[in-house]
Request: fold
Amino acid sequence: SAGLEREALERELTVNAIVGRIWPIVSRDDSLTEVLVFGGGRRNRHFMSRLGHQLPDIPIRSVDEIGLDGDLVEAAAYAVMGEAAIRGEALDMGVYRGKTHCAVCGRIVQ
Reply:
């Protein structure tokens, strides 16, 4: 059905977006030994499989496998970004871009 096709497309677009951000980091840093996933996607076997397929040289695991609560990690990440957005403070995003880059991650709209 169209709904299932749309859902599959959304999943694939999400995987492509994640891989597009992760690959530049993974490809240049040999010390990275795995990718740990948190949030709802970690429970989706197809999603995790697609990540593994597109990043075949590095293991993809849920943070739950190392004893962390993936929902708690996601909530903490959003809390940090939300707090910074409320204060208008930029977070250092350099690790994601390979250079110094600070940005306010979102904004609060009322």
Remarks:
- Strands lie at 35-37, 60-62, 91-92, 102-103.
- The longest helix spans residues 2-28.
- Residues 6 and 12 are 10 Å apart (CA to CA).
